[in-house]
Amino acid sequence: MASQSLVMPGEVLSEDVLPVPQKSSLPLKLGPGLRHTPPSTITNTVAGLLCIDRKKNAIWVENNSGRYLPQTNDVVIATVHHSSTDWYHCSITPHTTFAQLPQLAFEGATKKTRPQLSSGSLIYARVTAASKHLDPEIACYNPSTGKGEGLGELKGGMIFDVSLGMARRLLLNKQREEGKLVMLEDIAEQVAFEIAVGRNGKVWVKADGVKETLLVGNALQCTDKEGLDIDEQRKLVKKLLRQI
Taking Cα atoms as reference points, which of 95, 13, 19, 92 lies closest to residue 57? Predict the structure, then answer.
């Protein structure tokens, strides 16, 4: 479970707050909202909650406002804007530079078998390169294994916007224990659906019908906006299920 404390932009983190890894070989992982200045200065760049996961030796600032800033290894949901000879140019957040997706960056893709994506196509991808000086680059496969691992084009379904904090909670391995989220688990007992969560605050949902898809999306957004606890989430799910 990550510990949290409030921080403001420009604050320099003291060494006392940095996590001490359980394994000495585990490097410190800096997430969104932090900037490293060599050799060892770490500065907050946004206001929010400083989150520390000592088990993973990771530290980041949780901030629900503002726009998403791409970080290497983040999974995102992007929209294809246009294509060029070797690239798809994709939107991750509005009014920012496009992320670059190589047309062969898919599992088993060749020039003959690569996906033919058009403007407006949705993709689930991982950020492979991110820098404030260059456009981010994304890929729909794991370069180490060559496997898609759930990444690729998202067909059908609907997109729902959530806060960046909610997106991070949804991506936790233990949603109930660490994220205090149970609505998806409760809905899944009654309704079959697929879901993909982007760290950029986008959630793709696909169920058997429109009503079921909207139920999942509404549960996500209501829990996010109203800050529902576990009991309140369960009451919400029961109410939504009665409506279909």
Answer: 19
How far is residue 110's CA from residue 116's CA, in Å, rounded to a whole number?
A: 12
Neighbours of 75 (CB within 10 A): 19
| Entry field: residues in the chain | 244
Q: Give 103-138 as a DSSP string.
A: TT-BTT--TTTS----TT-EEEEEEEEEETTEEEEE
- pLDDT 10s digits, 139-185: 999 988 889 999 999 999 999 999 988 998 899 888 888 788 999 99
Distant-in-sequence, close-in-space partners of 94: CB < 8 Å, separation ≥ 6: 67
Contact yes or no for 31/60 (Cβ under 8 A): yes
pLDDT digits (tens, 9 = 90+) for 98-130: 999 999 999 999 999 999 999 999 999 999 998
